[in-house]
Amino acid sequence: MNHIACELNSILEGTVAEKMLSNFGKRIYFPKGIIVQSAEAKKFAETANATIGMAFHKGKPMILSALSDHLPYLSEAETVAYAPTAGVESVRELWFKHLLEKNPSLKAEFISLPVVVPGITAGISYMADIFFDKDQTVIINAPCWDNYSLIFEERREARLRNVSFLLDQSIDIVSITEAIEDEARTGEVRIVLNFPNNPAGYSPTSTEVDMLCECIYRAADSGANVFVLCDDAYYGLLYEDNTCKESIFCRLAGLHDRVLAVKADGPTKEDYVWGLRIAFITFGSKGLKKAHFDALIQKLMGTIRSSVSCSNTPAQFLLLKTFADQRTQDNKDRYFGILQRRYLAVRRFIDAHQNHPVLKALPFNSGYFMSFECTGISAESLRRVLLDKYGIGVIALGEKYIRIAFSALNEEQITPVLDTIFKAAEELA
Ligand SMILES: Cc1ncc(COP(=O)(O)O)c(C=O)c1O
What we know:
Layout: H1 3-12, H2 16-20, H3 23-27, H4 34-44, E1 56-57, E2 60-61, H5 65-70, H6 76-80, H7 89-102, E3 115-117, H8 120-131, E4 137-141, H9 147-155, E5 159-163, E6 166-167, E7 170-171, H10 173-184, E8 188-193, H11 206-221, E9 225-231, H12 248-253, E10 259-265, H13 267-270, E11 279-284, H14 290-305, H15 313-324, H16 327-352, E12 359-361, E13 369-374, H17 379-390, E14 395-397, E15 401-405, H18 411-428
Helix pairs in contact: 1-14, 8-14, 10-11, 16-18, 17-18
The protein binds pyridoxal-5'-phosphate.
């Protein structure tokens, strides 16, 4: 094993992070090569900097005129220069500050500085690389975002333990506890918590967050090492008063020495920038100190360096400028209002159409989606009929569930679309 990887592993020795590392996670390191030497030269090479593989003219990166014309408010360096492997420092600090502002109970000492990754998907995939080996189990909500299967099962050969996290109108704490206790007996628990949830659109209440944390605490306290990945892709899109307004990551980060929590989040959905491809990974654990977080970040940087090398530079500077722009909060408030009204239109329809013979809504109160469980018909048949006969596109998740992205519908479309879905389902039964 490379000597830098050994050094990082010895810094992490005895911590939950070291115990949960995959074989790749143990081997990976960030070399003191081109990137480190070039960063040193950027600071100290006053006479000439011949380190980085970029082309400069009069001290600025060369840039095509068409690019600078289309991005007139970004400098050459903000547009075409390579970004640091872990992200532009000011962007990382901005997200750190935002995490603390959006989650008042989050304690800075329990979390790392966020690392920039090229999208939440990439961030989750990197965590799978670092913390999952073949045949290891990850507890996951069923139904879940379909990409988890590609990331954990196909890429990493881990095993998804599908547990229905939701029951009637709430979290199914009994099933979750059973799965966690069962895994805890093996000495290790790995779990993904995705709230607001894709595809159900549910987020827990504060009482449910308490129950989830108690259950994870008990597993850790019984001696198991626990890795929790909080996929917070839809963070903040909470439409009801009784949902917990903070990410469960805040609680998990300070819960127990044997709990390692990771927050995968970003502006993708929160800030309406789906194609910008920028997101963040933040580590949190009561048992880790700054040196441990730094070692984990070095391992994540090695993972980034060996795959995409670094994230998109203009995306990072555009995010900085967007956050500094006075119009942004107003825009966000307005868009939130639009989404909330769409949610309320769905809610009113569902409340007025209980006891449908075929479709039962899974609990929903947040995010972009709501889903129906189909009884007696196949979800795929319903999807085909809706598309072919009525020109309505929805997602079938296996044979049992259909997902409606109400975020993508105008408010006035919601009642007629749901009405058609209900009728089509009845006709199929
Ligand atoms: C639960 C969940 N996580 C992550 C993502 C992906 O986010 P990104 O586009 O930033 O990779 C999505 C997108 O659909 C999602 O639904």
